[in-house]
Amino acid sequence: MSTPNSQLSTLNSQLYMRRALELAALSGAEGEVPVGCVVVHKDGRIVGEGRNRREGARDALAHAELEAIAAACAALGGWRLHECDLYVTLEPCPMCAGAAINARLRRVVYGASDPKAGACGSRIDLFAHGFNHRPEVSGGVLAGECGEILSGFFRGLRGL
Fold first, then answer.
1. Phi and psi of 151, rounded to 5°?
2. How crowded is residue 144: how many other Cβ atoms within 10 Å of its Cβ?
3. Are strands 36-41 and 46-51 parallel, antiparallel or unpaired?
4. N or C: which end of the chain has fewer CB within 10 A?
5. Residue 141's beta-bridge partner residues?
6. Rounded CA separation 118/40 (Å)
7. pLDDT of 107 strictly over 70
8. What distance in Å separates the CA atoms of residue 45 and residue 133, rounded to the nearest whole number?
9. Weakest mean pLDDT among 4-18, 52-66, 88-102, 128-142
10. What proportion of the chain, given as a percentage, has pLDDT over 90?
């Protein structure tokens, strides 16, 4: 049986993931792989947002998570995000999971799993390797919607 706090937590997770989906849709509309991300302070404020911009920026580092983490650091005036959670529509890759460790994020929440490059358990679990910090991880929040925005994008590329 779920408690009122767990129900509230689920609703909040869905709310933040919906904002990440909005950001993902913006990326998709620009021809980018549609991934969106928000960083949320423990008080409920979104302190950073990001979306994929690799094609437009011609930058391998222009991932949604890195953009959101950088924005959160700027907003909060420091690099330690230990009072923050990251919500992203696609399971982070090794680079982005490493950034979550280095930023000391308290929790990583993702929507769709990524069997090809996911570093939160699908391909590898980077957080299980004994680094100096280990964020909590939750996957599958609005997984169907997160997966569909990606599938739809790639169907469009193939002309299906």
1. -60, -45
2. 10
3. antiparallel
4. N
5. none
6. 22
7. yes
8. 23
9. 4-18
10. 90
Q: Is 65 a catalytic residue?
A: yes
Count of CA atoms in the C-beta half-sphere (13 A) of 39: 29
Let me know how long the chain is.
160
Q: Give pLDDT tens digits for 120-141.
A: 999 999 999 999 999 999 999 9
User: Could you please report the per-residue DSSP string of 35-69?
Assistant: -EEEEEETTS-EEEEEE--HHHHT-TT--HHHHHH
Q: DSSP of 103-159, one letter per residue?
A: TT-SEEEEEE--TTT-TBTTS-BGGGS--S---EEE--TTHHHHHHHHHHHHHHHHT
pLDDT band at 148 (very low <50, low <70, confident <90, very high): very high
**Of the listed 32, 49, 65, 67, which one is catalytic?**
65
Question: 44: how many CB neighbours lie within 10 A of its CB?
Answer: 9
Contacts of 43 (CB under 8 A, 6+ apart): none
| Range 95-120 average pLDDT | 98
Using DSSP's 3-state secondary structure scheme, residue 86 falls into strand
112-125 pLDDT tens trace: 999 999 999 999 99
What's the CA gap between 151 and 156, in Å, rounded? 9
